[in-house]
Amino acid sequence: MICPHAGYMYSGPVAASAYFELALDGKPDTVVLLGPNHTGYGSALSLMSEGIWQTPLGKVEIDSKMANDILHETSIIDVDELAHRYEHSLEVQLPFLQFIFGNTFKIVPICFLMQDYDSAVEVGRALEEVLDTTNTVVIASSDMTHYEPAKKAAEKDQAALQAITDLDAKRFYETIETQNITACGYAPITALITYANGVCAKAKLLNYHNSGDITGDQSSVVGYAAVNFKKQIPNNPSK
Questions:
Q1: Looking at the domain assignment, is residue 17 inside a domain?
Q2: Which domain CATH number covers 64?
Q3: Is residue 237 predicted with pLDDT exceeding 50?
Q4: What is the signed CA dihedral for 233, 169, 49, 58, rounded to 10 degrees?
Q5: What average pLDDT does range 46-53 have in this prediction?
Q6: What number is the average pLDDT over the span 151-175?
Q7: Is residue 191 part of a domain?
Q8: How many other C-beta atoms are found inside a 10 Å radius of the C-beta of residue 238?
Q9: pLDDT score recorded for residue 232
Q10: 65 Cβ contact list (under 8 Å, min separation 6)
Q11: What average pLDDT score do residues 100-118 get?
Q12: What HEC string does the chain produce?
C-alpha cells in the first residue's frame, strides 16, 4: 500500500481507505515499512534489525529474521537506529495496524534519506527475493505535493499517481523529477512499484485528498493518496 503520514486530522481519512482494504484482506505476519527520512539523522538507507516499537496501543516487535534476510540481499542498507529515533513517517502507520490486528504482527522498518532511483529499485528487488514465500505486507509511507494551490497540486499528483497505477517505476521517478513534485517518499514508492512488478501485482488508487479539504484553505495544500497493490492469483488448470 501507499499511505500518507501527516497529522491524523489531515491525512487519517485517506490512510484509513487503504487500511480498510487491508483489514478485508486478512492479517499479515510481518509488515515492511518504507518511508522517507525527514530528520537527516542516521545513515542514508537505514533499517532496524531488532527491538520493539511502542505506541499507546502496545508494543510491536521487529522481525529480526526478515530484517537480516533483507540485509543479506543488498549491500546498500545499514543497520542504524538513529535514523528512526525521531522519524514519524513509519511510526504513524502502527496505530492503524494495531487497531486492526492487535500486536500480533511484526515489522521491518526501512528509512530512506538517500532517494535515488537505482537504490530504490535495489531495495524493491531485495524485497521480491526475501518476501517470496512469506505472509507480508509492504507499505510505502509518503505524502504527495507540498504547499501548492490545490488545483496545481492535484494536476501534479495525478500525473505521478497514473505512473504508479501503471506500475511504471521509471516513469513515476521521471515525473517526480521533471514536474518538480515534492512528494517526500518518492524512493519508498519506487521501491514498492519495483516489488509489485516482481510479484505480478496490480495497483488501484483508493483515495486522494488534500489538507485544504480539512482546513478550508485551498491556496497552499499538501496532497494525500492511498493506493492498494494486490498480487494476482494465476488460474490453476488443475482445479
A1: yes
A2: 3.40.830.10
A3: no
A4: -70
A5: 97
A6: 98
A7: yes
A8: 4
A9: 84
A10: none
A11: 97
A12: CEECCCCHHHHHHHHHHHHHHHHHHCCCCEEEEEEECCCCCCCCEEECCCCEEEECCEEEEECHHHHHHHHHHCCCCEECCHHHHCCCCCHHHHHHHHHHHCCCCEEEEEEECCCCHHHHHHHHHHHHHHCCCCCEEEEEECCCCEEECHHHHHHHHHHHHHHHHCCCHHHHHHHHHHCCCCCCCHHHHHHHHHHHHHCCEEEEEEEEEECHHHHCCCCCEEEEEEEEEEECCCCCCCC
Residue-range definition of the domain harbouring residue 146? 2-231
pLDDT at 233: 73
Alpha carbons 58 and 155: distance in angstroms, whole number: 40
In a domain, 27, yes or no: yes
- CA 201, CA 195: separation in Å to the nearest integer? 9
End-to-end CA distance of the chain: 30
> For the residues 184-212, what does the mean pLDDT come to?
97
Residue 237 lies in a domain: no
Cell numbers at residue 161, please?
499517481
Whole-model pTM? 0.95
Amino acid at 216: G
Q: Which of 216, 185, 237, 195 is nearest to 15 (CA)?
A: 185
- Residue 108 predicted with pLDDT over 50: yes
234 pLDDT tier (thresholds 50, 70, 90): low
pLDDT band at residue 238 under the 50/70/90 scheme: very low
What one-letter code names the amino acid at 221? V
Q: How many domains does the chain fold into?
A: 1
Mean pLDDT of 25-53: 96
